[in-house]
Design goal:
Pfam families: SnoaL_2
Number of helices: 5
Keywords: Isomerase
Shape: globular
Structural class: alpha+beta
GO molecular function, one term: isomerase activity
Number of domains: 1
Protein name: Ketosteroid isomerase-related protein
Radius of gyration: 17 Å
Helix content: 25-40%
Strand content: 35-45%
InterPro entries: NTF2-like_dom_sf (IPR032710), SnoaL-like (IPR037401)
Length: 170
């Protein structure tokens, strides 16, 4: 992971939250939640899992939604289980290059929509996918994290391109 690419991704979150909303400056609760999301990403990037754990509620729930062939699809509960899942899930990927597309925040919920390019470590194959992450906060900590990603490119990186489909007709 390039430190500059990841720093830009994290810094782009707040401007994306403000984009297109002239009243964004008055949304202090939502801005605070976006700031907490940025802090979480920063902790993960620098490998500071102690700070990352403190940002989560005791009963945190992590859910990655996608096809079962993707090794980091699943649901985990509690700080220790979630922290281990995140460490393991990141270990599958390398050369991650996330790009913020949109940030939406309402009350205690932040939605981040992004595009990410990188490689699946075990195969060395590249992927280029979009993902949506939903953070729900309770008492200033993440209580629920849900991620959904388009999976075709990631599945190709894991298993190889799907060659069972007929070739396009000219």
């Amino acid at each position: 992971m390039s430190a500059a690419v990841l720093a830009k991704f994290i810094e782009d979150l707040h401007p994306a939250f403000e984009a297109g909303d002239p009243a964004a400056a008055q949304k202090s609760a939502e801005a605070a939640c976006v700031g907490l999301v940025q802090d979480q990403y920063r902790a993960v990037v620098r490998g500071d899992f102690a700070a990352f754990l403190v940002s989560m509620a005791e009963d945190i729930e992590l859910e990655n939604i996608g096809p079962p062939a993707i090794p980091f699809v699943g649901c985990w509960r509690g700080r220790a289980e979630v922290a281990e899942a995140i460490r393991r899930n990141f270990s599958w990927l390398e050369d991650q290059q996330p790009e913020v597309l949109t940030v939406v925040a309402q009350g205690d919920t932040v939605i981040v929509i992004a595009r990410e390019r990188g490689r699946f470590k075990p195969t060395g194959r590249a992927y280029d996918m979009h993902w949506v992450q939903q953070f729900t906060f309770k008492d200033g900590r993440v209580a629920r994290f849900r991620q959904v990603f388009d999976s075709a490119s990631l599945l190709d990186a894991i298993t190889g391109p799907n060659t069972s489909q007929p070739a396009a007709q000219s």
